[in-house]
Amino acid sequence: MHISRFPRIHFAHLPTPLEPLEKLSKLLGGPQIFIKRDDCTGLATGGNKTRKLEFLIGDALHKKADTIITQGATQSNHVRQTAAISAKLGLRCEILLEHRTGSDDPDYLENGNVLLDRIFGASIQVVPAGTDMDAVMEEKAQEVRKKGGNPYIIPGGGSNPTGALGYVNCAMELVGQLNDRGLNVDHLITATGSAGTQSGLVTGMEGTRSGIPVLGICVGAEKQAQEKKVFNLAKETAEFLGIPGSVSSEAVVAYGDYVGPGYGLPTEGMLEAVGLLAREEGILLDPVYSGKAMAGLIDLIRKGHFRKDENVVFLHTGGSAALFAYRKTFTS
Ligand SMILES: *Cc1c(COP(=O)(O)O)cnc(C)c1O
After folding, report:
1. Within the chain, which residues score under 70 in pLDDT?
2. Minimal-distance CA residue to ligand 1 atom 1
3. Is the entire prediction scored with pTM above 0.90?
């Protein structure tokens, strides 16, 4: 797949490392677990949105935008990374934060990613849960146009075919690393939310016929809704790339058993996973995405979902800045 025909600005630290989790693999007594360190993409404490933003911001500059408008939940990692790259490239950044969890904890409202958004100089508007975010972004864009500016709207999580190209590219990068090392991988596991990450990975893995299945662990939606969302975006992404029809609905699998009470709300499994990775491997996960995805992987290993001689790769999508917003969750 020929990705260099799309506009792109290179600022991610790539390739991200692929490392064995030796102690964790031994402790769980299951398959060999490897971790793909997309928490180390280099932009403002890293994370998966950086790969998407290389293509989204590339497109924005190609269209001569001067203002980036985007949205996310209060502790959005996507928003933080967007604010950072906008600052670097001299773009105005207007952000809408949806107060999705309803938490009134001052750490949740002002620390973690929100603190970083402010440090990066983004202009922030907080709106209640359930707001039609796309409609409000469009209103903002109209205001910018009225003042003579040229706005570029990035959807929540950067999840559209342009953003998903970042994860098509990640799939190719990972397959390259596996081939270089002679490593045969049986499963790739990732958190899945706004769906761009899993959609891009599936498109990349299917488009290259790698034979590596991708398993998404839901962080908000239930299984069927998430699979539909991922499949629709993967289909669009394949069309955008000029390889229509290369992703089948069977290639899209998401498990919805690890969400707990809802998006951004802690679970026992997440607490255990964050603790285990910190104490066994010195790696920081996050409370909203990678912590729940790792809780899913741990549970599946314990249930015997994988053979002991298999190799699995866990995609670390980042998000540790949000730990500071969940101080009470980890200390009480
Ligand atoms: C956004 C995000 C995800 C989910 O990726 P999507 O492309 O939205 O599905 C996973 N982990 C972290 C840390 C994120 O910020």
Report:
1. none
2. 157
3. yes
